[in-house]
Structure formats: C-alpha cells, structure tokens
Amino acid sequence: MIVTVRSGTAADRDFVVETARRFADFGPPAWRTAAEVVAGEVRCLDEFFDGGMQGAGLLVGELNGRPAGFAFLEHHTDYFTGERHGHLGMIAVIEAAERRGIGAALLRAAEDWARTQGYPALTLNVFEGNDRARRAYERGGFAVETVRYVKRLD
C-alpha cells in the first residue's frame, strides 16, 4: 500500500466534486440539509476550478497511484490579529480508502503548503457532531479555538 500526495489539476475535477458529496454523511446540524451542505462545497469547488479563487490550492491523496482523497486549501485572515494564515477548507477521503493513512498524509501536506506560503498557522472547520474527524484533527495537533453557535430565525 503506497500513499502519495500530489498537487491537484483540472483533470481531478470530477473526482474531487464526487468525493465532496461525502460531506453530507458527517454530521451536519439538524437545520442544514445534506443537499445544502453538498451544494455549498460543490459551488466553492466549481469556483476554484473555473479560476475564480486566486491562490487557493488543491492536493490529491493517492493510494497505489489512484486518487483516494483531496484537500482544498485557502488563504484566510485571522479575525483577532489581522494576520494571514492557511485554511483547510475541505478534506475528504473516499470510503474505500478510509483508515489507510490518506487523511493523515493530506493533513501533513496541507501543513507543508501553509509553511511554503509563509503562514504561521493552519485552520479548519468541522461540524460539531463529526466526532471521528474531530479526533483525527486533535491527533494531528489541531485544537479548538472558538465554537460557533447558530439560531435559526425562520
């Protein structure tokens, strides 16, 4: 079993968009539908692939030479300090490749991407109910900074 990570290309679009559909499976809150979650992620990826997100990055994790996961990277600004940092906007692994090191390899590669950009930090968001991902991020050295609350008013 050989795990590698490479830069994504336009040829990866179908794989990445299809894999992003998995986000609906991982604990969106009750007021978010699976369709809404997927539509938001796909909209962002379409903007990236269509050239509308300058400087964003895409990494593709491969298992034995075949795409098995991806990480989408963005540039963000820290609310408190105004300092620029890297942001892991999306990370997903195909079901058949779960627990084979693809996610961990993508996290390490995302950190390397942020370092090469000269960033002092890498952030990410995760649904509160996605315990499995939260444990993986904490094993990777990430820590909770803020907790966002939402109250639907409709």
Task: Give your account of this protein's structure.
By secondary structure, the chain is an alpha+beta fold. It is built from four helices and five strands; from the N terminus they run βααβββαβα. It has a five-stranded mixed β-sheet, sandwiched between helices. Helix 1 (about 15-20) packs antiparallel against helix 2 (about 35-50). The longest helix is centred in the N-terminal third of the chain and has 16 residues, at about 35-50. About 25% of the residues are buried. The mean pLDDT is about 95.
Order of helices and strands: EHHEEEHEH
* % residues in beta strands: 15-25%
Biggest sheet strand order reads 1-2-3-4-5
Q: How many beta-strand elements?
A: 5
Low confidence ranges: none
Percent range of helical residues: 25-40%
Q: Number of helix segments?
A: 4
The pLDDT mean sits at 93
Based on CA inertia axes, which overall geometry fits? globular
C-alpha termini separation: 50 Å
Structural class by sheet pairing and helices = alpha+beta
| Main sheet properties | 5 strands, mixed
